[in-house]
Every structure is written in structure tokens, then in C-alpha cells.
Design brief:
elongated; Creatine Amidinohydrolase; 10 helices; six-stranded mixed β-sheet; alpha+beta; single chain
Length: 371
Amino acid sequence: MDNLTPFQRRQEKVKKLLPGKPYDTLLVSEPWNRAYLSGFWAEDMQLTESSGFLFLTEKAQVLATDFRYQEQAEKEAPDFQVVIYKENLANILPEIFASLGTRTLGFENHHLTYERVMKIQEVLQEWHPQGELLPGGELVEGLRMVKEPEEIQAIRNSLALTESVLETIVAEAEVGKTEKQLAWRIEQLMREAGAEAISFPPIVASGPGAAMPHAVVSDRQLGDSETIIIDLGARLDHYCSDMTRTLILGEPDSKAREVYGIVREAQLRAMAAVRAGIPSSEVDSVARDYIALAGYGDNFGHGLGHGIGLAVHEKPGFGKSSSMVLEEDMVVTIEPGIYLPGWGGVRLENMVRVTADGCEILNQNEFFYSF
């Protein structure tokens, strides 16, 4: 019987991959990768200020952090040998390299700054003249793409909380309220419902502002009969949710009806195309081609969706040139949109779990118009 914790299972997966790599030790610095493997949940305040680093070999694993996180690290990451550095990581590296027998070190080249990489390389070569620092790629991100049952349940819970907040927002939205008022209300409701945090700053984009996919909320008042894009998500038990609905207060005009109907049909067609074994680019094309045939191809400029889990945006990605192939138990968003400068826009976003022969729509909220 498998008595391993989820973190131990993930550690074993990494260790089984190491023999095929050109390095004997993997340095994990990306915060969500670090948490995914260890259970150490401290967050980095900024890119140049780290809460800790993991070092993994086939037989051992070390978590290096500073005094601020010592108690938390020892409690949350019992599978790791915790070592404390007093000033910076470089000072403790020789001790870690000696204990692990490190000669070649793989690092997350998509995350570490050039300055930090150069310093680690300097210390490694001082420790061993033939020491090499090698790009480790997105090894852990590759494991994170396929979600475990516990992760899927956490995502369901996060999404359920987000949907309950959206229901309240839709009920409270009215002409004359400002975007900022609604955005702040979203944050308030999420905290009151038990969310650890918002997974990203809410988007409330009304009228012409809805033509910007990632519009910044403003003091603009909501108007009658215009489209209002509301994009929101919560973080609960460390896992994110992300959903978008487009609201129309009052009676929509013919343009809003047309654009909304096209986006909704593109979303339905894309969700119907999702299944294990299909390239994500093909799913993207289903929605993109439909929108293009309707005459709005130039107005859908972003990818169809993205993976979601510990991070609100993670692999796999959807786009014209994506080489990702969907696998069972990936959790992804499907979010086509049409954006018309000077008029507004429509985006609709659901979260789905990829299955062997289709997908499970995780959203329970059916706030869609059928014009």
C-alpha cells in the first residue's frame, strides 16, 4: 500500500527523472515548485528575495532558508534536511554541496536572476574545479500539469467559493456603481467566504474599457446596456480558481447580442473539443476559427486558455503555436473573447478537467445569456 504523502510521491517522481539528466543535483527556486515538492508554503516577497531553496539528488534533499522561516520550514517540510543561512544562500552552498556530493547543478533557468546564477556558479566552481551549473528547464512544472485527486478537489473548492462571490456581485451590480466599487466588493466577499487571498486582482471592465482584455479597474460608472467583463478568482487551500462572465445591465443592443452569442458558441465548441491526446493548439483553433468565420478574427488576440493550479497561470498553454498535448486530469481554462476598441468586449471563461474522452466542466454557475 502506498503510504506516502502527496509531497513524498512528488519527490520520488523528481528523483526518478534525475538519472536521465546531465546534472546530479536539482536546485528548485520557483516558489510554487518549492511548495509543490516540499509543503513549505512561505511566499517570496519579490524575485530577488527568496524564502528558500530546495536541493534534490537521487538519495537526499535539502531545504535552505534563513532564520525567519526556520520554524515554519521544519514544521511544514519534515522530509527535507533544513539548513539555515545567516546572510545569503552563497555562504551555505559549500556545506550543501559537500553533504550532497554535488558536481553538476541544474537550476530553474526560467526563474533565477542572472546575478544569482553567476554567484552560484562562482561558489560551485570554487567548491569543485569541474563543477557545472546547467539549465534545468521546467521539470517540476511538467509534473504539476497533471493534477492529483487532492489538487482537483482543492480547485473545485476554490471555484465554488469564487462562484458564490460572483452570484452576489451579479445581484448587487447596478448602473451608477463604479468598477472600483465592484472590484473591492469582490475582494471583500472572497475574504469573508474564507479565501486565503485573491488569485489575481479582479477585473471589472465596462463599456469601452471592456475592449482591453486585462483592463485596470477605474472610477468609471457602470452604464446601461453595455458589456461589463468581470474576471475573478480565489486562492483556497493554496489552489487557484479563475472565471469570467460578461454582464449586461438593462437591455443589450444588437451588437452586444451578436458578439456575446459568437463568444459563447466558440466556448461551447472548444469545450466539446477538449479530450486527452489532443494538442492544445487544435482546441484553440476550434474557437479561433469560429470567431474568424464570424468576422472577428482580428479581435481575439490572446490564447484560448491556460492551466491552473497552485499558480493562476501555469502549463499547459493554449495558442496557435503551442505544442502541448492535453492529458487526463489536467485542469485548464477555456476563455475566448472578442474585443472591439471604442465599443467594448465579451469574454467567457470556464474551468474544465480533461478526461480520457472529453472534459468535465468544473463550473456550476450557469450565468450565461441566451439571446
